[in-house]
Amino acid sequence: MDPLERLIAIEDIKQLKARYFRAVDTKDAALLRSVFTADATADYRGAATDPRSGVNAIPGNTEAVVIGAEAIVAGVMTSVASLTTVHHGHIPEITVVSDSEANGIIPMVDRLTMPADSPIAALDGWGHYHETYRKEGDGWKIARLRLSRLRVDVTMAD
Asked: Which of 78, 90, 76, 81 is nearest to 32 (CA)?
């Protein structure tokens, strides 16, 4: 892969991750499905747990590795259905391994606002997405995703 092709791949992967964030925040299941390979895995274990209190603000798909794009999308859509979310990814480190494989670490921050009847008002999180990408016929896709948190702040409802 020449340097220009590598830069184009990196930009395509940045756009892919931006679509992921937008799909989650707008609850667009079709768009979210489009960013994953059919055999993708997503590991959100511990991603919504406050290390100080041990409270998991979003139980369910934050307790196991999820296998397959359909299962990932279903789990994410269920988890965020009643939430207002805002996700940001910044300054990605993307390494193109070959014409069809790349790895990335993407620093992130998010704000999840819970429904009014929840004992938790909000979750603010900081961490990194660790991902593997695969280029398919219709472009780059996320093949493996792991969200690790450096900090989670849970705001309890009054």
From this structure: 76
Domain ranges of the chain: 3-156
Lookup: tokens for 37:
């390979």
Name the one residue in this structure whose structure tokens are 């798909």.
61
CB-based burial of residue 110 (10 Å sphere; 0-12 exposed, 13-18 middle, 19+ buried)? buried
* pLDDT tens digit sequence for 84-112: 999 999 999 999 999 999 999 999 999 99
Where in 32-156 does DSSP place strands (E)? 36-43, 65-67, 84-89, 93-96, 101-113, 120-136, 139-156
Task: Select the CATH number that applies to the domain covering 3-156 from these four: 3.30.1840.10, 3.10.450.50, 2.60.120.260, 3.40.30.10.
Answer: 3.10.450.50
The model scores a pTM over 0.85 = yes
User: How many C-beta atoms lie closer than 10 Å to residue 72's C-beta?
Assistant: 22
As a whole number of angstroms, the distance between CA 7 and CA 58 comes to 37
First to last CA, the chain: 56
Q: Which amino acid is at 116?
A: A
